[in-house]
């Protein structure tokens, strides 16, 4: 008997289903609905999604026949999560200390950035102590073996690979092998036979995500899921998948640089702002323990338009170089180009420079670049960007090795930044002689024992005077 289906319209952002097409979803997204075919299953059919549930793992209703009762929060015991080390220190740092059993980890990144390489290396390390199943819907088993031979010198007998896209076949393999770690590469290639829609559709991605969550929670094994990204760099597929998993990681890097940054955007078992640093080479990814030194390898000599600034990422300070170039514009509208810095943030800093320092920038092309490919989210780099632009505009190069941190406000005042004392300590360790920072931060830093000159400034005008004197 042929399956009975109906047409629904599913929002790609939140997964909301509507019987008719809508211009705007209830989540606020415009033009996000796509047409999907779904099965018409009776409510009492044990194969239906409503009856199947997840056995109490985040599902509503009876949850497979059990009666679910609310618990008193005060009497709920604290869980002691058991972690599995991946053998890669930077990856363990981002995960919060290792993989938690029963957790779902989603990793995304541009094609060719190194996601599969990192996962193969982690799988090889974990396979030394337990069984690992690597399921790929994009590559054959021979292709996975070729990559593993290149990046993993020692492959054990506990690492299994499987080229499959059907979730029912994967479930059978998991039941037979009983792995301690499951890898799915990638979720956009997976499908379940219970739906007629194509792999990668909103319905399939959402259904496969639910099945994988059921795998991890009921079998108490960590599941690593690889996901594609859109042209804008956002995670492809419905947003409900990001809410479903326990940890969301993003792997970034520039094509012309060998540094790769792994950043946690969501982590239920650790810090959500932690980053890990890797260097891509012929033998795969290697860890970078001293990230600041990697970004500052060519800054021994002071250069015009170059300023060292810093951000605090997760649990460590990172020093980086900001370069700026200003030149007379030959057209009516001057260019504003930024790499690593938000364009709107750059426009705001230029407006403050014009208003508070009296420097006309309307006829100047301005180019700003963060060296190394890092894209800092913190506003503590504002002062470094402003001083780099000023240095290029005025042709001034400071005669000492110094760094500058602080958020620039619209009034020209400098707002304090977090963990300024640790940033100052990192700058002193790398041999810098002076750090310019907001006065509030400078007043809180214990100058005793600090082998660096701390200069506190209240506004951008005082910062410029401290920079050029």
Description:
- The strands form 6 sheets. A 9-stranded mixed β-sheet has the order 8-7-9-10-6-11-12-13-14, sandwiched between helices.
- It has 3 domains: 53 residues, no CATH class; 207 residues, 3-Layer(aba) Sandwich (Rossmann fold); 175 residues, 2-Layer Sandwich (Ribosomal Protein S5, domain 2), CATH 3.30.230.
- Helix 3 packs across helix 4 and helix 10 crosses helix 13.
- The protein has 469 residues and is an alpha/beta fold.
- About 5% of the residues have low confidence.
Q: What are the SSEs and their pairings?
A:
Blueprint: E1 5-11, E2 17-18, E3 33-39, H1 49-52, E4 83-84, H2 89-95, E5 99-100, E6 104-109, H3 115-126, E7 132-136, H4 141-151, E8 159-163, H5 167-177, E9 181-185, H6 202-219, E10 223-227, H7 240-244, E11 247-253, E12 259-267, E13 275-281, E14 284-287, H8 291-295, E15 306-313, E16 316-328, E17 336-339, H9 343-357, E18 364-370, H10 382-394, E19 402-404, E20 407-408, E21 414-415, H11 420-429, E22 434-438, H12 439-444, E23 453-457, H13 460-468
Parallel strand pairs: 6-10, 6-11, 7-8, 7-9, 9-10, 17-18, 19-22, 22-23
Antiparallel strand pairs: 1-2, 1-3, 4-5, 11-12, 12-13, 13-14, 15-16, 16-18, 20-21
Helix pairs in contact: 3-4, 9-10, 10-13
């Amino acid at each position: 008997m042929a399956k009975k289906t109906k047409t629904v319209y599913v929002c790609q952002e939140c997964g909301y289903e509507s019987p008719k097409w809508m211009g705007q979803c209830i989540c606020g997204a415009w033009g996000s609905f796509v047409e999907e075919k779904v099965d018409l299953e009776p409510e009492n059919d044990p194969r239906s999604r409503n009856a199947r549930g997840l056995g109490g793992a985040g599902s509503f209703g009876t949850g497979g026949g059990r009666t679910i009762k609310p618990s008193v929060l005060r009497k709920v015991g604290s869980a002691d999560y058991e972690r599995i080390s991946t053998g890669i220190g930077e990856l363990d740092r981002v995960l919060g200390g290792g993989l938690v059993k029963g957790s779902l980890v989603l990793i995304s990144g541009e094609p060719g950035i190194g996601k599969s390489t990192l996962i193969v290396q982690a799988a090889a390390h974990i396979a030394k102590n337990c069984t690992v199943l690597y399921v790929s819907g994009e590559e054959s088993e021979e292709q996975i073996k070729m990559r593993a031979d290149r990046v993993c010198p020692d492959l054990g007998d506990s690492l299994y690979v499987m080229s499959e896209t059907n979730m029912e076949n994967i479930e059978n393999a998991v039941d037979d092998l009983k792995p301690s770690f499951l890898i799915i590469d990638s979720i956009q290639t997976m499908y379940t036979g219970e739906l007629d829609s194509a792999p990668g559709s909103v319905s399939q991605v959402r259904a496969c995500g639910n099945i994988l969550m059921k795998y991890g929670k009921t079998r108490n094994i960590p599941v690593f899921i690889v996901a594609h990204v859109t042209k804008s760099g956002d995670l492809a597929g419905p947003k409900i998948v990001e809410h479903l998993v326990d940890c969301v990681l993003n792997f970034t890097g520039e094509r012309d640089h060998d540094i790769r940054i792994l950043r946690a955007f969501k982590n239920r078992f650790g810090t959500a702002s932690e980053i890990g640093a890797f260097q891509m080479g012929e033998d795969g990814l290697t860890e970078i323990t001293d990230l600041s030194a990697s970004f500052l390898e060519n800054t021994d000599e002071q250069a015009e338009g170059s300023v060292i600034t810093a951000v605090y990422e997760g649990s460590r300070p990172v020093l980086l170089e900001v370069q700026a170039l200003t030149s007379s514009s030959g057209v009516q509208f001057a260019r504003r180009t930024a790499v690593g810095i938000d364009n709107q943030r750059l426009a705001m800093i230029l407006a403050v420079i014009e208003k508070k320092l009296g420097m006309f920038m309307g006829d100047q092309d301005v180019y700003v670049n963060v060296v190394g490919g890092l894209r800092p989210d913190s506003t503590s780099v504002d002062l470094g960007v402003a001083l780099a632009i000023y240095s290029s505009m005025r042709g001034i190069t400071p005669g000492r090795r110094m760094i500058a941190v602080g958020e620039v406000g619209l009034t020209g005042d400098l707002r304090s930044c977090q963990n300024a004392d640790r940033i100052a300590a990192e700058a002193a360790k790398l041999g810098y002689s002076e750090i310019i920072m907001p006065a509030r931060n400078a007043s809180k830093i214990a100058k005793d024992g600090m082998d660096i000159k701390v200069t506190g400034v209240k506004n951008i005008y005082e910062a410029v005077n401290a920079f050029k004197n």
